[in-house]
Amino acid sequence: MNQDYIKPDNWSIIEEGFDAESVKSSESLFSIGNGAMGQRANFEENYSGETFQGSYIAGIYYPDKTKVGWWKNGYPEYFAKVLNAPNWIGIDIEINGENLDLANCKTVNNFRRELNMKEGWYSRSFEATLQNGTEISVNVLRFLSLDLDEVGLINYEITPLNKETKIIYKPYIDAGVHNEDANWEEKFWEPLDVKNNGNQAFVTARTFKTHFIATTFMHNVILLNDKNQNVTPEKVESNKEKIQFEYTVNVPKGEKASLQKIGGYAVSLNHENTQVGAENSIKTALAKGYNQLFHDQITAWAKIWEMSDITIDGDVKAQQGIRFNIFQLNQTYLGKDSRLNIGPKGFTGEKYGGSTYWDTEAYCIPFYMATKDQQVARNLLTYRYNQLDKAIENAAKLGFNNGAALYPMVTMNGEECHNEWEITFEEIHRNGAIAFAIFNYYRFTGDYSYIPEKGLEVLIGIARFWHQRANFSTHKNQYMILGVTGPNEYENNVNNNFYTNYIAKWCIDYAHAQIQKVSLEYPSDHKRIIEKIKLSDAELKDWKKVADNMYFPYSEEHQIYLQQDGFLDKELVRVADLDKSQRPINQKWSWDRILRSPYIKQADVLQCFYFFEDHFSKEELKRNFEFYESFTVHESSLSPCVHSIQAAVLDKMDMAYTFYLRTSRLDLDDYNKEVEEGCHITSMAGTWMSIVEGFGGMRVKNDALHFSPKIPEEWNGYSFKINFRNQLLKVSIQKNETTFSLEGNKEISVFVNGKEVLVEPNSLVTV
Asked: CA dist 743 to 414, 729, 761, Å?
């Protein structure tokens, strides 16, 4: 398969020419979603070639029993998986007695797919000659409504090219689906009921164990030359999990037969009675009609782009990359529902189980804070607050007490469900990212109310965990954190990972400071919380002792913080001197060899420098960056963005640009040769950060926006928007000037390279 088969385009993802080798990759890249559901870009008609079928519903999951060789105390019982949901897009098609299947056609010409990111729809067109000699032209358009988020629409048009043709459309819905990543080949859905009425059909199914109920629905309309034929199905076939209709249309050569299919899900998360919910969704969609729904879709996406678009002038591949990233983030999560979160693959595949990781707090929250109303980011914080009891339970399973909270590495409902011990038990730095997100939210939005209402309890639970997890070394007369895995997962069970120790100390200090602030400014909240969680002055003193005496490994020789105690004992061969045939090491080497190597999967010490940039000097950043980047293999999708930001700070612009392209086109150019498994959604937020925080140099200091704009050699200019405290600031950066404009009602001060600039509403300011 040609790695860069996607055509460069400012607003669309385009594939031209049919290649069976790229079908699964395209199913990922052309995926669509609306925050409530999503699906891979599978063909609607039957396809007998290699394909990975996938439709997903946000918040619906199954506890797939953990598969491990040797059980250990505290091990998660299950790995939660977002389920492959019942299929509503399916349309079998018969053309003059032969099934349409692109794998079996004599010829397929002018095959084209387009994902239009500006307007939020996916289309596919081709001309085919079937084995029986019939020639047809096909145009399919599909979208998932942002306004009616239980509803999707398909318009499937066929035009016979060489003779009158008998077309039989056979639309169906099917709950007999399975997950490609099932541990035990189990079925996840139990069919409950199949119903049909005129052109409508419903399949209701319930998940085993978790007992979510989903009614999958369809409604079909047949048109000839865009005129509704007002027909009902001639034939209805059903079993306990699938129902299929049949419509026959005789189509003269050159005329057009269409099937318009409304489909989607009503789920028990949102409806007492899912059947009634499904009927109502169809009713609402029909009242609007296909054309109005399509028009509404374009309007809804225009509104999203108004706040979140980034323009790049003079570099189409970079422009396409960032828009693809912003588009997929919005398809995955729109922030309407605090029960939902952002899975690393979104609705594009099943890897990582579709669960929530620390990626949300470390990478995604900055994007959602700046491109949406602040309530969206608050909902992401609320998600963790609502799972605090479970985090306390998770910590208790590992032997912690007194309300210490350990947030899970991977979760659906707050329970830990990751099934690799060196991550489940050891990658505890994730706790720090959750506390950091609370700090980051307040720093950016100025909304302190979250902390007394909810956040302080989370901070206290996390501080209690770090206090108990550290142990005192009489040898060093300091506190240590032993047996951990840092962000670099190519080192397991190490002692004193610098990033983990640093964020642990910071969490305790930050929690302590917020307790003081809340006691002074929100005394009734303070009283309520302290009584609820029984926090004493003696306990706070004990915390402080740990934070003030935390040990940080340091090398005097290199003048750098050590990633962990034994890092310099490794054979320090830089990546540049590693034989290229050995890359990627995660596919070429044994795990034992990786763990003994100096190679780093993603920013680790540098993750600390990213979060706490203002705690260190630029010289310290330079020394640590130059040392650690030379050992980094960037085999995590989360790696290039942090390095791009820091390279920009250090004026290493060629490097910053290379890392930016790597993060923005990670999936489009399939750097890791795995895009067919799904797209890397959470790292896409890192791509946004590489432009805004990297090249734009945006920071929030003392309640004000600061910028230190830089521009890659390859670009003529770029612009981005920041929704800062309910005012929308547009920043446009050219080679020799930066322009600001403001949509809001009051002036704001911004700082450019340290100098204050006043920006007034609806006027341009050039620096």
From this structure: 39, 6, 6
Secondary structure of residue 136 in the 3-state scheme: strand
748-752 and 704-707 as β-strands: parallel, antiparallel, unpaired?
Answer: parallel
Which 3-state string (H, E, C) describes 529-542? HHHHHCCCHHHHHH
Distance of alpha carbon 343 from alpha carbon 654, whole angstroms: 31
Of 494, 354, 344, give the one whose Cα is nearest residue 427: 494
DSSP, residue by residue, 624-648? HHHHHHTTB---STTHHHHHHHHHH
DSSP secondary structure of 609-620:
HHHTGGGS-HHH
Q: Which of 673, 589, 598, 605 is nearest to 637 (CA)?
A: 673
Contact by Cβ (8 Å): 696, 690: no
Q: Characterize the bridge pairing of strands 78-82 and 91-95.
A: unpaired
pLDDT of 761 higher than 90: yes
CA distances 150 to 203, 271, 288, 383, 636, Å, are 15, 11, 14, 22, 33
Catalytic positions: 489
CA dist., res. 685 & res. 358, Å (int): 13
Q: How many helices (H) and strands (E) does the chain have?
A: 22, 33
Better-predicted residue by pLDDT, 456 or 411: 456
CA 163 vs CA 133, 248, 748: distances in Å: 10, 16, 67
Task: Return the number of other C-beta atoms located less than 10 Å from residue 351's C-beta.
Answer: 15
Residue 507, H or E segment: helix 498-521
For 130, residues 6+ apart whose C-beta sits below 8 A from its C-beta are 95, 96, 98, 100, 105, 106, 136
Give me 677's structure tokens: 């498994």
Tokens representing residue 54 in the block: 């996938």
Q: Each residue of 552-600: pLDDT tens digit?
A: 999 999 999 999 999 999 999 999 999 999 999 999 999 999 999 999 9
- Among residues 440, 378, 403, 438, which one has the least CA distance to residue 530? 403
Nearest to 351 by CA among 44, 666, 52, 641: 52
* Distance, first Cα to last Cα, the chain: 47
CB atoms within 10 A of CB 78: 18
Distance CA 252, CA 161 (A): 9
SS3 (DSSP) at 381: helix
Q: Strand pairing partners for 193? A: 204
Please state, in angstroms and as integers, the Cα–Cα distance from residue 603 to each residue in 115, 547, 674, 691, following that order.
Answer: 32, 24, 21, 18
> The tokens of 177 are what?
């689906």
d(CA 305, CA 117) in angstroms, rounded, equals 9
Q: Is the pTM of this model over 0.85?
A: yes
Q: Where are the alpha helices (DSSP H) in 569-709?
A: 585-588, 591-596, 605-611, 618-629, 639-649, 653-664, 681-689
Residue 735, Cβ neighbours under 10 Å: how many? 9
pLDDT tens readout for residues 51-94: 999 999 999 988 877 666 666 677 777 777 788 999 999 999 99
Residue 68 CA to chain centroid, in angstroms?
Answer: 27
Q: What is the DSSP letter of 144?
A: E
Residues 6+ apart with CB under 8 A from 133: 162
How far apart CA 414 and CA 434 sit, in angstroms, is 13
Tokens of 150: 């239980």
242: number of Cβ within 10 Å: 20
Amino acid in position 575: V
State which amino acid sits at residue 762: N
Angle at 185 between CA 275 and CA 424, to 5 degrees: 95
Q: Which residues pair with 91 in a beta bridge?
A: 171
Residue 270 CA to residue 276 CA, distance in Å, equals: 11
Q: Cα–Cα distances in Å, from 482 out to 75, 395, 513, 564, 607?
A: 19, 16, 26, 10, 19
Query: Which residues make Cβ contacts (< 8 Å) with residue 527, sequence separation at least 6?
Result: none
CA–CA separation, 286 and 540 (whole Å): 61
Secondary structure element (H or E) that encloses residue 389, with its range: helix 388-397
